Amino acid sequence: MKNLRTYLLAVLSCSLLASCIVDDEIDVDNETFNGPLVVGFKTDDNLGNFVEEPGAQFDFDIPVHLIGGQSGQPSGSTITMSYEIGTFADLKISDDELADLETMLDINNTPLDPSDDVRKYPIAVPGTHFDWVDTTLETTIPANSTFDLIPIKVNNDALDNAKTTVFVVNLKTLVTVDNVVISEQLESTLVRLQLCRTDLAGTYSVNYATPANHTIVHLGAGNYELNSMFGWPNNTYKSYFYACAGNLIFTEWQFSNEIIQGSPGYVDQATGQLVFPEFGIGGSAGPIYSGSTWILTLQ
């Protein structure tokens, strides 16, 4: 797969969606199903983006929902269930997809190890990368409500700002209420934690044939403005990108032409340069240019 930095989402994009999984016992898409109340993780991928701040702890919540059953009516009683750290084998993906995914995981959790592939995903460890707020590891959906939140505290200093730290949460057992089941297909969810960089503003030289500079301005929360699109250094074709988990991803510019990123940009950890490989700009009759690698060096 060409874009390894986004591999995790590509692997899971279909495999974790309810529409991709067959459950012979519970139709979770039918909220008016007149059977047991069904609880589970409605969201299969929980992404937390945090602005990097040394020493900080960030609040993050993982939602648990009442999915359906009982003709679409919530329970008149509280629903309490326990949860636990899961394994990636608990995710509803095929054996081949799991094997591919495991090659992307940084099993040894070696932050900023230059011998490690920067595209791998460190596995979060409770008490290190994050802390459970409720140490009993129970979540309760209140009576006549449809969801609850599992709160965690994310530790900035334990996260690698060049990677996405990941872990799996499983719903484990029901503690209260009869006639409630945990959906087998929605009992596990993926959590992704990543830091967004705020230190990339400045004036950069770009590797044009004729030397030219570009200016980058930080707009807040890891979002940036480039004073002119690559290829037009002497114009004011402003464009915008964000910098999270080591990825530099363009989101828009002032024209409708497609911004082509064959793979995400990144910060070279050895040189500090910003690198945008496989870059191009689309056009109505084909790309205006494509396959370029732009290298930005801070002045």
Task: Please give a structural write-up.
With 299 residues, this protein is mainly beta. It has 2 domains: 193 residues, Immunoglobulin-like (Sandwich); 97 residues, Lipocalin (Beta Barrel). It contains 2 helices and 21 strands. Strands 13, 14, 15, 16, 17, 18, 19, 20 and 21 form a 9-stranded antiparallel sheet that branches. The protein has a 5-stranded mixed sheet with strand order 7-9-3-1-11, with no helix packed on it. A hairpin with a 7-residue loop joins β20 and β21. The longest helix has 9 residues. The N terminus is likely disordered.
List keywords for this structure.
disordered N terminus, Immunoglobulin-like, 42% strand, Lipocalin, mainly beta
Q: Layout of SSEs?
A:
Layout: H1 7-15, E1 37-40, E2 45-51, E3 57-68, E4 79-86, H2 95-102, E5 105-106, E6 121-122, E7 130-132, E8 138-141, E9 147-155, E10 165-174, E11 180-182, E12 188-196, E13 202-206, E14 212-220, E15 223-226, E16 239-244, E17 247-253, E18 259-261, E19 266-267, E20 274-281, E21 289-298
Parallel strand pairs: 1-11, 2-12, 5-6
Antiparallel strand pairs: 1-3, 3-9, 4-8, 4-10, 7-9, 10-12, 13-14, 13-21, 14-15, 15-16, 16-17, 18-20, 19-20, 20-21
